[in-house]
Amino acid sequence: MTTNLATMVETSDRTVKFIQPSRLNHLLDRSRNSVRSARQLPLLAVICFVLFGLSSCNPPSQPNFDMDVRTPVQVQAVRVGDIENLVVSQGKLQPRESATVTAQVLGRLYYERDENGDRFYEGHHVKRGDVLARISGKEAELNLNLPAKKQDFEIAQREYDRQVSLYEDGIITERAFEQTRQTFNTAETAYRRALLDEQNTEVFAPMDGVILKLARDQDNILLADETLISSGQLIAQIADLRTLEANIGLVSTQRRKVEIGDPVRIRPSATYDDETYDGILERILPLVDEQTSTYPVVVVVPNDDLVLQPRSYVEVEIIVEQRVQVPYVSLDSVKKNRNNHDVVFVVEGQRVEERRVRLGLQDDDNVEILEGVEPGERVVFGGVEHLWGGQTVNVVREL
Q: What is the pTM of this model?
């Protein structure tokens, strides 16, 4: 026999209801499911929030297959020119030969005039034997005193001639004759000196050249005609400017590279163009300069056009070694590959080819190419350390 028990439940309106056991089990199952669902609500909320956020973002962009991935490079053609190994120094140009003319007598200075009647000036060209100036005036005449010295000489000569006969005949002693001879020698020297001084009143140019300097006063103003000058005062300085020389100093490492006869290129420091003048290394002094600890070297440069000026500073390039009209590239076009070979990168279409090269003479910027590339071929310069053969490139600059 089955017993069907009922459960009494009090409702909200204070009434009492009886629920059958099967009905009661159904209600309890629903209650348990509701509690379980309530517990899962936070997790579901989070999942929904994430899904909503992702759906609101922009969708991932598609790959851009049109993007340029080529390496940008700079290109220059293999050129032909001269490559030189130089020893560079600085120096000051000086005349190779010069002469200083000074006054030999006291007197008034008168400068000569040129063919146009103009007084000689600094920079005037003169020839050997040209009269530069004259020294005259009462001061010169009194200083020379030529008539009196001539008379003293004539008297001393007559007395000496007379004493010679007396001495030979034994009439006078040797001591007396020696005194007469000394008097004659003194008079003769004074007279001959006066004659020479008379000749020195005319001042001649001792060489062909250019007047570098004329007599000036303490304020560096040219002396006017009739200015009183003394013996030893400068009248003119003349130099041959057709050949100039520069004295430079080389340290021991430079000295070992150069030889007498090496060609030299002179570049004036004051010019802003590429004008140069050819010369030659003429002398290497054996002793080191104690002040600079360098070897003194003399280079000579012809100056027939008189363009170069003495006392001007110049840059001296001694050409130790030279290659004329050879293929070359810039130094930043060459690198060592993994096999330690010198290579360059030749542009072929949109790719570069690694090309092994043999190098020759180099200077500060460029290097000679003995083999590997030909003139006109386009090679990459700058940044070649990051290139490899077959790499695609984009030429952004071409020289």
A: 0.65
Torsion of CA 72, 78, 79, 85, to 10 degrees: 100
202-204, strands of its sheet edge to edge: 202-204, 131-136, 107-111, 227-229
Are 118 and 219 found together in one domain? yes
Domain, as residue range, for 148: 104-232
Q: Give residue 330's identity as a one-letter amino acid code.
A: S
Residue with tokens 């030979």: 168
Please indicate, yes or no, if residue 315 is contained in any of the structural domains.
Answer: no
Structure tokens at 344: 């360059």
Per-residue tokens: 350:
């949109």
Say yes or no: 79 and 179 in one domain. Answer: no
Instruction: Output the DSSP codes for 256-277.
Output: TT--TT-EEEEEETT--S---E
For residue 165, how many C-alpha atoms fall within 13 Å in the half-sphere facing its CB?
Answer: 4
Select from 232, 248, 277 the last residue of a domain: 232
pLDDT in tens, the chain (399 residues): 444 444 444 444 444 444 455 554 554 455 455 545 445 445 444 444 444 444 444 444 444 445 557 999 999 999 999 999 999 999 999 999 999 999 999 999 999 888 888 888 999 999 999 999 999 988 888 888 888 988 998 999 999 998 888 888 888 888 888 999 999 999 999 989 888 888 888 999 999 999 999 999 999 999 999 999 999 999 999 999 999 999 999 999 999 999 999 999 999 876 556 789 999 999 999 899 999 999 999 999 999 999 999 999 999 999 999 999 999 999 999 999 999 999 999 999 999 999 999 999 999 899 999 999 999 999 999 989 989 999 999 999 998
